[in-house]
Amino acid sequence: MARDKRPPWVRRTALRDGLVDIDGARIAEATEELRHRGRATLHDRLHRVRMAGGLAVQAGLAAGLAYLISHKVLGNPQPVFAPISAVGTLAASVGQRFRRTVELIVGVGIGVAIGDFLIYLLGTGAWQLGLVVTVAILLTIFAGASVAIVIQAAATAVLIVTLSPSTQNLEIPRFVDAFLGGGIALLVTAVLLPLNPLRVLNRAARPALDLLAAQLDVTADGLRNRDRASIQRALDRLRNNKEELATLSEAIEGAKETATLSPARWHRRGELTHYAEAADPIDRAMRNTGTLIRRSVTLIEDEEPVPDPMPDAIGHLAESVRLLKHEFAVGEEPEKARERSLRAVSEAGRAYGAGVGFSGSVVIAQVRTTASDLLVASGIDQEEANRWIRTAFGEQERPVGEPAEPGEAPKPPTAPPVG
Q: In whole angstroms, what is the distance from residue 47 CA to residue 385 CA?
């Protein structure tokens, strides 16, 4: 639509005469889109705050306790390292805090040794500081240390070189504070303020599962309306799911650690097993759904037939994902999610029987495969899930080009679905 280049007073006159304001409609559309994006961004930010709220409170409590014990109990006049160690243990490596504490202490030891040795040989100054950091990094990398140890060794070397001239006997308090900070962090995590691992997992799983269900819904509607653009947008959105999956994987590791460390959360171990075992099949369901949506785009482009049960099958998959999320959240056996997955396969079988083209047959195959992934995510063994899928799909295959009923036109060539 061409832009109205007339002066504003002419456009206002035209509006009074009953003509359409082209610019006004475009501006209103852009404003509505920006408003929607603003709401989505605010929702995402609030969700991230809720996700990190428990960790933030844990870190604050650990830092305060580490400072108090180092200063009041151990008599350290400048207890800087203890709260830093506590926060570093809690925040830097969710799900691996035991390992993080060990890395912290090893890094401190390397940094102190290198810093003290080079200060003894070379003295202090700018170039000495640069040399100490370089040597600390190269030696830790040569020894095959992790990134966390390399960073901790370099940071400790910097502190030793810069603070040694004004602070005597810095090395021992640094070691003590590293132990103290890491220990306080583990104490807060396990005893004083253990997070509810199921709540953490539910919040982490929600974005990934909501994304999957939403894009399946969009694809189902797009197939009903033969709307290629909307299906393509769903595909683009699903391809950018790395953040949601990474958040879920990290939350699973953190929850498993909490259930291991905290006596108050030991009774949650069995429930956490469902989530831990569901992570991989959910990831596979995401990838298989991507193939389903991509082939749906091709199906529309090639003007292949879209039997009515095909979008219904995809819609049932979306509902299965939502039911799986809900039943995991309330700790129920995901029977409703399983039933809806099998209904999706049954509808896919009806669509295949009605006749589909090549891309349509791939869509049907991916409905079966995604439903199998969701069944496995719900706790069903893979072999049993495949058996259920075959039963729900039914005997729909027939020779290529053979009519389903006498007098019917031959169907387009099809590729047999795979479960």
A: 34
CA pair distance 136, 200, nearest whole angstrom? 38
| Contact of 82 with 124, CB cutoff 8 Å | no
Contacts with 5 (C-beta within 8 Å, 6 or more apart), sequence order: none
Q: Provide φ and ψ at 401, rounded to 5°.
A: 85, -5
Q: How far apart are CA 15 and CA 8, in angstroms?
A: 11
Contacts of 56 (CB under 8 A, 6+ apart): none
Nearest residue to 217 (alpha-carbon basis) of 308, 321, 364: 321
* Highest mean pLDDT: which range of 156-170, 197-211, 247-261, 374-388: 374-388
- By the 8 A CB rule, do 385 and 351 touch? no
- Determine the pLDDT at residue 415: 33
Structure tokens at 112: 């102190």
Positive/negative CA dihedral, 93, 98, 99, 103: positive
On whether the CB atoms of residues 265 and 197 are closer than 8 A, the answer is yes
- pLDDT, average across residues 108-133: 79
Q: What average pLDDT does the segment 253-277 reach?
A: 61
**What is the greatest pairwise CA distance in the chain?**
98
Instruction: Quote the pLDDT of residue 121.
Output: 80
327-365 pLDDT, tens digit each: 877 778 889 999 999 999 999 999 999 999 999 999 999
Contacts of 26 (CB under 8 A, 6+ apart): 1
Distance from the first to the final alpha carbon of the chain: 47
CA dist 302 and 288 (Å) reads 21
Model pLDDT, residue 300: 95
Tell me, rounded to whole angstroms, the distance of Cα 256 from its chain centroid: 17
CA–CA gap between residue 5 and residue 10 (Å, rounded):
10
**Is the pTM of the predicted complex or chain greater than 0.85?**
no
Q: What angle do CA 82, 86, 90 make, to 5 degrees?
A: 170
How many CA atoms lie less than 13 Å away from 74 in the CB half-sphere? Answer: 22
State pLDDT tens for residues 78-113. Answer: 777 778 777 776 755 455 556 666 776 677 777 777
